[in-house]
Amino acid sequence: MSSPILIQKQGYIAELIFNRPEKRNALNLETFTELKKQIGQLEADADIKVIVLRGVDDRAFAAGADISEFIESRTGRESAEHYNQLAESAIEALYRCKKPTIAVIQGFAIGGGLNVALSCDFRFSTENGVFGITPAKLGIVYDLASTKRLVDIVGPSTAKEILYTGTFLSSDEALAKGLINRVYAASELEGAVIEFADVLISRSQTSIQGSKQIIQAILDGSDTDTNETKELVSASFDSADFKEGVRAFLDKRKPTFH
């Protein structure tokens, strides 16, 4: 039986590939378990600077939760709470990953699949992207953590529209609502992702990872410095990246960060 997630590494980039093509990469408990494990391993891998998430083919990024599992895994309050806790722990691991993450979307990014994409730092889509969150069509209430991520990205009014209606959005509509960052023709997507990832790779990882953690602290409700955010700033001045950045500026050359 093939793994629901594949990992491919090329240089400083790791691709995390959802691999259930027969289900349009619908997310099941096995997928969530593997997602959490792989994110932990990639975050710990010093050779990886950028993580790209994608579907195994151009039909879907991830077409929501695997509803065929609900008969066994979400039949009532107790089983649903277990399922939701496991799924949220995986998505939270992705959201809290210190390394920059890019969701590359072709085809469907629905429900839990869109939630995974919203947990990434950036979302790039082809013109055939389809987006939606459909609890109103299933009779369930979207959980707070997932709703907050949606509200943080598109604002409360648009989040209400998406959740109340369950309407599918095209890539252009998703872009207009701020749900995704960029839209490309299918033939241009791969090159655009690599080009953007290469920019991130060339920059200071101390700066990128520190900025990500501070932005997340703000989204978590912080409006004043904590000991952790102060330490991120102070420690950066002791870093090799800071020394290289200053030397490169004075030498009038591009910095080479490691």
UniProtKB/TrEMBL annotation:
Ranges annotated as spanning the membrane: none
Domain of life: Bacteria
Gene Ontology annotations of biological process type: fatty acid beta-oxidation
Pfam families: ECH_1
Record GO terms (molecular function): lyase activity
Keyword Lyase: yes
Alphabetically ordered keywords of this record: Lyase
Family listed: Belongs to the enoyl-CoA hydratase/isomerase family.
Name of the protein in its database record: Enoyl-CoA hydratase
Organism of origin: Alkalicoccobacillus porphyridii
